[in-house]
């Protein structure tokens, strides 16, 4: 009892300090955001430790920097570019369905207003779909018309006879376009949902998948370059100080494991890019209703390697470019095996 009374002032001080920190930094009050921030700090510290130990122990690298400063400058440029790409990807939006719906409704409202002024039929283009607006129906409620336009837009992406109830998210209460999924970590529906990255603290979707791929590429290159520098140090300084060698060997082992993981991840996502797939579609293919009846070796959303690469890297000016489900004729054409003539005519591209 006396011990508890003695500790009470310290607990009160601790609670006041914690409340003060939560007031100054509101993000710390949320356990999920606090965990995400802790992972980001840990990842940055890992980068600093690997590079810092290398420059602290390797005298040959310091000497090489004096003779060839461009070599170290390129390495440090890759180091800072990787960290910048990490935070850039972490802070980017994956493309939320609610945001796409809001943009579509705002665009449709502007078109309706312009059509009301001109008293002429108008059309609004959202993504790959054109929603025609009749000037005689402009007296209807604007919000209801916007919701109806979004519903029509999404329904046009699915085959006829698809139930609206099956397409409505039970958490967000919004209709999901094809390839969208609700993320329980972000508590939002994401367009072209790939996965939720714990290290980035955000979902990977249509809006930031390209940035995520470039981050993996830069991280892999940095990890490979750092591993080469570690090996060069051990080859030239293996008999100097055993404790320094022990630290370098332990770091090199963990670095090698990370490099293997990054290489596999880079190859896996490169395969997804070339075939226009997502991790969720590949892993849970049999559980997704519109992919369940499609053979596994048929990529329903693929438009050829070259077109997939172009859409992934260059045609992402709008992250709300939604894709409809392919028709039966398109699936039959994609199911047909390639022939030598198809290769010569670049059908596979």
Automatic annotation (TrEMBL):
Compartment(s) of residence: Endomembrane system
Cleavable signal peptide: none
Residue intervals passing through the bilayer: 37-57, 69-88, 212-234, 246-268
PROSITE patterns assigned: DHHC
Biological process annotations from GO: protein targeting to membrane
GO molecular function, one term: protein-cysteine S-palmitoyltransferase activity
Keyword annotations: Acyltransferase, Lipoprotein, Membrane, Palmitate, Transferase, Transmembrane, Transmembrane helix
EC number: 2.3.1.225
Pfam families reported for this sequence: DHHC
Main location class: membrane
Main enzyme class: transferase
Membrane topology (UniProt): Multi-pass membrane protein
InterPro entries on file: Palmitoyltrfase_DHHC, PFA4/ZDH16/20/ERF2-like
Domain Palmitoyltransferase DHHC, first and last residues per copy: 166-284
Reaction equations catalysed: L-cysteinyl-[protein] + hexadecanoyl-CoA = S-hexadecanoyl-L-cysteinyl-[protein] + CoA
Notes on the domains: The DHHC domain is required for palmitoyltransferase activity.
Protein name: S-acyltransferase
Protein species of origin: Liquidambar formosana
């Amino acid at each position: 009892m006396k011990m508890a009374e003695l500790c009470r002032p310290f607990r009160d001080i601790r609670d006041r300090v914690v409340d003060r920190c939560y007031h100054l930094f509101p993000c710390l009050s949320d356990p999920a955001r606090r965990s995400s921030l802790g992972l980001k700090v840990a990842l940055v510290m890992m980068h600093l430790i690997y590079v810092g130990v290398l420059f602290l122990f390797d005298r040959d690298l310091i000497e090489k920097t004096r003779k060839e400063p461009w070599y170290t400058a390129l390495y440090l440029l890759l180091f800072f570019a990787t960290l910048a790409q990490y935070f850039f990807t972490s802070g980017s939006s994956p493309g939320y369905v609610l945001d796409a719906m809001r943009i579509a409704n705002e665009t449709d409202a502007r078109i309706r207003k312009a059509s009301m002024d001109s008293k002429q039929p108008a059309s609004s283009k959202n993504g790959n779909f054109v929603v025609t607006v009749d000037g005689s129906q402009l007296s209807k409620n604007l919000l209801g018309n916007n919701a109806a336009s979004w519903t029509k837009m999404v329904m046009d992406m699915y085959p006829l006879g698809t139930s609206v109830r099956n397409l409505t998210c039970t958490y967000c209460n919004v209709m999901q376009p094809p390839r969208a999924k609700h993320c329980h970590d972000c508590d939002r529906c994401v367009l072209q949902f790939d996965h939720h990255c714990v290290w980035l603290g955000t979902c990977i979707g249509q809006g930031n998948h390209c940035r995520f791929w470039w981050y993996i590429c830069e991280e892999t290159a940095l990890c490979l370059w750092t591993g080469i520098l570690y090996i060069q140090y051990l080859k030239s300084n293996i008999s100097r100080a055993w404790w320094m060698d022990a630290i370098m060997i332990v770091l090199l082992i963990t670095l090698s494991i990370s490099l293997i993981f990054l290489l596999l991840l880079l190859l896996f996502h490169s395969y997804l890019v070339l075939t226009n797939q997502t991790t969720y579609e590949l892993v849970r293919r049999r559980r997704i209703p519109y992919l369940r009846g499609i053979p596994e070796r048929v990529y329903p959303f693929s438009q050829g390697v070259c077109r997939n690469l172009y859409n992934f890297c260059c045609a992402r000016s709008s992250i709300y470019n939604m894709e409809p489900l392919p028709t039966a004729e398109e699936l039959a054409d994609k199911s047909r095996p390639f022939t030598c003539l198809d290769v010569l005519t670049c059908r596979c591209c």
